[in-house]
Structure formats: C-alpha cells, structure tokens
Amino acid sequence: MKLGFEETQSSYTSGSQNARAWTEAWVKAWAYCPHCGSATMSQFPNNSPVADFLCKSCKEEFELKSQKGKFGPTVSDGAYKTKCERLAASNNPNLLLMNYDRRSLAVVNLFIVPKHFFVPEIIQERKPLAATARRAGWIGSNILLSKVPESGKIHIVQNGVIRPKELVLEEWRKTLFLRSKSLEARGWLLDVLKCVESLGKREFTLEEAYAFDRHLGELYPGNQNVRPKIRQQLQYLRDRGFIEFVSRGSYRLKS
C-alpha cells in the first residue's frame, strides 16, 4: 500500500474537486475490502445516492468521506430520509473516513465504521435548506461519530502508519455478529458499550454501569427493566470478547 496520491491526473480548478479526485483514485488503487480482504474495489458513478465504492468480490458497499483535518464528533452526510431508509437494508454502505496532508499529498488516517454500527441514534436530521437555496427545503443528515464505540472505528492507516491487514480483518470479523441483530438490539449493545467506554478507564464495576440507567431509560422509554437489561448486555459483550469478567461485579474493557 502506497500512501501518496497521484496528482497528475487531476484537471479541476477547484481544490475540493481535485482532492476528491485524488482520494477516490487512491481508494480504487490501494484500498482493500475489510470484509473479504479483496483489493478489487470498483467505483460507482458520480452522484450515486449513498455509496461510492463496491467490492467486486463480496459486494460490500462503501461511502468515502475525506478531509484535510481529523474528523470531529459529527460528519456531514447526504439526505436524511435516504440515510434512514438504508439503515436496515443489506446494501447499506460502510463508511470510509480519510484525512490527508495537503502538502505531501498523502493519506494520514483512514478508518472504517462498519455498517452494522449504524443505528438511528447516530443519524442526526439537519435543518432544511433555506427557501433561497438552490435545493430549497432539502434535508441533510449528520453522522454522530461521538456516539460510535471505539470498536466501531477500525483503522487501516493510523497517523501515517499502515496497520497490518490481518489485524484489520480480525477486528472487522469480531464485530460481524451485530449484523444478525435487529436495530433495537444492536442499539442496546452499542449504547451500553459506549457508556462504559465513556468512564475513561479499562476496569469498571456493575454499579458504575448502572449509573447510566436514567440515560438509557430515556433512549429506550418502552423498557421498564433497564438495570437487568444493562446486565444482560454486559454478559453478551463479555461472551463476544469486548469485555472480560474480572470478579463479581467487576469488568474490564478489552483493548
């Protein structure tokens, strides 16, 4: 894998258009599919509704977002209605996030948020465009990266260093069980995992997890047994290798 862009093929006067051409050409030339490991990534036609790339081998779809600086807590995305409709679809795209260095024309970070980490809670509706705008009334969306657990951000390139492909594929496979879950069941697991990550330490107690009962109760108002549900999710996350049991009422996040 080569981290530099091929600049010579760009012919746009706009810097953002040139950057898009560079980054898309790089993905097509050097990226591989984290689902099957294949390097056969083909590009969808421009202005496709959601996705940008398709793995020819396993048919996984990918949406690419790229920028110079690191991504913050939110990422602007396409039409809100389209994004929500695709959440439960088999061809909902995985999200590729790239940041690059404008001077050296090279990839600095590239990570992927697998589609099975997408739940309604991380899709934010934006305000409609003003009546004076070219697309008046159009409603876009934001992806709330701050609500995605760390295990849902799988780095391929990190701080200019290419991570071993075997490690990337292993991290991807570890999360695939989420695809068999309903959106609500997936949401519970991811919300509980995000809560314990927010404690900021590897080891935590059941009582510390219970402290999020009000927050989780607000997210799932139909559930009247929040604490048993938290305990159930911790047991499931333990069985799936995301956390480990230390002693009675004590757990540890796996790195």
Structure report:
There is one protein chain. The protein has 255 residues and is an alpha+beta fold. The chain has two domains: 7-176, Dam replacing family, catalytic PD-(D/E)XK domain (PvuII Endonuclease, Chain A); 183-253, Winged helix-like DNA-binding domain superfamily/Winged helix DNA-binding domain (Arc Repressor Mutant, subunit A). 29% of the residues lie in helices and 24% in strands. It contains seven helices and 13 strands. It has helices at 15-30, 80-86, 165-175, 183-197, 206-210, 213-219, 226-239; strands at 41-43, 53-55, 61-67, 74-79, 94-101, 106-113, 123-125, 140-144, 154-158, 161-162, 203-205, 243-247, 250-253. Strands 1-2-3-5-6-9-10 form a seven-stranded mixed β-sheet. The longest helix is centred in the first third of the chain and has 16 residues, at 15-30. The protein is globular, with a radius of gyration of 20 Å.
What are the defining features of this structure?
255 residues, PvuII Endonuclease, Chain A, Arc Repressor Mutant, subunit A, 2 domains, seven-stranded mixed sheet, 13 strands
